[in-house]
Amino acid sequence: MKALRIEQTDDSPQVILDQEDKQFEISGKSLPEDVVEFYQPVLDWLREYQKEPLAKTEFNLKLSYFNTASSKLIMDILLIFEEMVEEGHKVVIRWHSLRSDEDMQEAGKEFEEMINVPFEHTIYEK
Amino acid sequence: MTFTGESKGFINYIYERYKDLSIKDITLVFEGQITHQIMKALTGLAEEQLAEVEDDSVLRRVYHVMVESLQNINRHAEAYEYRGHPYPGMGLVLVAKTKARFQVTTGNIIESQHVDELAMFLGKLNNMDSDALDDLYKKQMREGIISPQGGAGLGFIDIRRKTGNHLDYSFVKIDEETSFFIFTSTISR
Predict the structure, then answer these.
(1) Residue A102: its chain B contacts at CB < 8 A?
(2) pLDDT tens-digit profile of A58-92?
């Protein structure tokens, strides 16, 4: 499956979805003007990946900021992973937060409560 | 762009409410069309100004409240015509700092028919405790959809629960169809 790579901008995150390299990551800032337009290719890619995923998928979310509209789309992404778990695949969501960013740590715990996928919470310093 | 005639512009409504503020308390003030680019410029400017002097968590909340409030205006502000001059997506923002708090005030034109509904929703949020707000946020996350304007219906809920403070709001009637919506979020320092 062809990898999806999107460069980060000042209002949208970097996206790496690469089955061959086993790399699945969204990182940076997310407050694009049109969240649906930005995340649609990500959702489309994951829907395709869902059909024949790796035995284990580690999905890294390392966001320094996201607005509420983005959080809705992050939810949509996580729901695809939830379906994959229901279909018998192994998935881990690794949620990265800056040590000083308690709101980001909280947000990770909140997503974990809402989604039936194992979470790992990771703290980074800078 | 200012309004002529009896009004010097909507910014007066805001200043009137903040008579006690001195100029040194004002971090940022802007009146004009709030586009996505302007939103990024204003939030970036506030971030830059506060980065050296403000606690990281306070700074992040001020930034978040500004993003959400300004994106609301960008998505929902009605175009307004005054004496033949159109003002599309017109809005204003004022960020002020006192010893104990930041106040982010935004103002924009809305259709008068939405005033009651909006006032009721904001009043409801003010009466909810943090658990109820978290529940409402999660419910909206699960059941809500992205509107044609691009919002998720989460902004006001999230401002209320992240700041922990009451939302302050008022409406100034301009004419039968249009009202000016003034909205203030408070971030404790």
Answers:
(1) 57
(2) 999 999 999 999 999 999 999 999 999 999 999 99
